[in-house]
């Protein structure tokens, strides 16, 4: 079976998901939809992706830019089995009726509230929960990072309590209209929304999160403190649990990676699509076990970490793979993500 896929919204996430889908042998990218002409729209056409109008956008600006239009998003939906909605926050929910009327399945992103879909999704954590579903929400970048780590830890050791501070990037690299430029902004919604979002996947997990926004565009960083009921026998066992799990990259001290600038330089040198870092990034010397408490840092590339999750969500919804391990292996191989 080949699943026919549309991507509605061709920005930071949408263009990456479109490229990822185009690499899958069990999926076909039928087209992408945008509301206005841009260099990204031009690149879509250059890649051979049929371009459709979204959100009632007029065609004249596209024609003036020399961008051929294949139709409107309603036309695109008649040609596909599923749509990945990568529109701006809250627009996805508005688009939900459009997808229901068209009779197509839909994947929403983590900017939408959990009730936009039947299930919130992370491939390592609850792949089977998405099987056969008509609507799925791939959780946000920070929730994806925390959920991947939770999948590693909860499957091995019972957890009493998890506290995480999320040091959030202020904007994506291309967002020149956002800030702060010089400041650190506490998130005064205490605890932050990230913990409850993780609980949409791990409802029994005692996790509380706080967040601050800092003037960087590269990555988020999580500062984690996990208290186990029954801990790992030593720090090596904890480290190896992460090391043996797909979608985790652990830097050793000799590599000289002391923060997010070097992580993204590594990603640029590695040269995956869009020079991305789709794994949770941990540091060997940033993981500690002290009694029943574990401490670890992880860095999350907000532009790309959810991309493989969207691909796995499609595969789960159409039962294209027997389980998460098979789907993750296919996705990671096609995207160039190294296996553990």
Describe the overall structure:
- About 30% of the residues lie in helices and about 25% in strands.
- The chain is of the alpha/beta class.
- The protein folds into two domains: about 170 residues, NAD(P)-binding Rossmann-like Domain (Rossmann fold), CATH 3.40.50.720; about 160 residues, 2-Layer Sandwich (Dihydrodipicolinate Reductase, domain 2).
- Helix 2 links the parallel strand 2 and strand 3.
- Helix 1 packs across helix 11 and helix 11 crosses helix 12.
Write the layout of secondary structure elements.
Elements lengths: L2 E6 L3 H11 L4 E8 L4 H8 L4 E3 L6 H5 L6 E2 H5 L4 E4 L5 H12 L2 E4 L10 E3 L1 H4 L8 E4 L2 H14 L4 E11 L15 E2 L7 H5 L8 E8 L5 E9 L6 H9 L4 E4 L8 H11 L9 E11 L2 E8 L6 H11 L6 H12 L5
Helix pairs in contact: 1-11, 11-12
The mean pLDDT is 97
Question: Strand portion, in percent?
Answer: 25-35%
Report helical residue fraction.
25-40%
> What's the CATH class label of the largest domain?
Alpha Beta
- End-to-end distance, in Å? 29 Å
Shape: globular
Q: What is the CATH-assigned architecture of the largest domain?
A: 3-Layer(aba) Sandwich
Structural class: alpha/beta
Total strand count, please? 15
Q: Largest sheet, if any?
A: 8 strands, parallel
CATH topology of the largest domain: Rossmann fold
Low-confidence stretches: none
Helix run count: 12
How do the strands line up in the largest sheet?
4-3-2-1-5-6-8-7
The ordered H/E elements are: EHEHEHEHEHEEHEHEEHEEHEHEEHH
Radius of gyration: 20 Å
What is the CATH homology-level superfamily of the largest domain? NAD(P)-binding Rossmann-like Domain
Q: Oligomerization state of this entry?
A: single chain
Q: What's the number of structural domains?
A: 2
């Amino acid at each position: 079976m080949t699943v026919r896929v549309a991507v509605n919204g061709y920005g930071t996430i949408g263009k990456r998901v479109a490229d990822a889908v185009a690499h899958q042998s069990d999926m076909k990218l039928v087209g992408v939809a945008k509301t206005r002409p841009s260099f990204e729209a031009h690149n879509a056409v250059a890649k051979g992706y049929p371009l459709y109008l979204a959100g009632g956008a007029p065609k004249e600006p596209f024609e003036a830019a020399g961008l051929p239009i294949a139709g409107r998003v309603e036309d695109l939906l008649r040609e596909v089995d599923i749509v990945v909605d990568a529109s701006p926050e809250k627009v996805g929910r508005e688009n939900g009726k459009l997808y229901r009327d068209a009779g197509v399945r839909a994947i929403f992103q983590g900017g939408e509230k959990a009730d936009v879909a039947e299930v919130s999704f992370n491939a390592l954590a609850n792949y089977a929960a998405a099987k056969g579903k008509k609507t799925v929400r791939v959780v946000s970048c920070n929730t994806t990072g925390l959920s991947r780590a939770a999948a590693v830890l909860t499957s091995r050791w019972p957890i009493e309590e998890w506290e995480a501070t999320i040091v959030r990037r202020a904007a994506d690299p291309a967002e020149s209209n956002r800030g702060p430029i010089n400041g650190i902004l506490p998130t005064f919604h205490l605890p932050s929304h990230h913990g409850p979002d993780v609980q949409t996947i791990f409802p029994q997990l005692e996790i509380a999160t706080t967040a601050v926004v800092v003037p960087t565009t590269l990555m988020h960083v999580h500062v984690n403190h996990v208290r186990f009921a029954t801990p790992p026998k030593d720090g090596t066992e904890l480290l190896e649990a992460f090391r043996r799990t797909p979608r985790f990259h652990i830097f050793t001290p000799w590599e000289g990676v002391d923060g997010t600038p070097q992580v993204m330089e590594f990603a640029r040198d590695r040269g995956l699509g869009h020079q991305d870092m789709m794994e949770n990034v941990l540091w060997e010397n940033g993981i500690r076990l002290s009694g029943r408490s574990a401490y670890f840092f992880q860095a999350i590339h907000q532009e790309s970490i959810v991309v493989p999750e969207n691909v796995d969500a499609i595969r789960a919804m159409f039962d294209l793979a027997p389980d998460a391990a098979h789907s993750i292996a296919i996705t990671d191989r096609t995207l160039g993500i190294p296996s553990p």
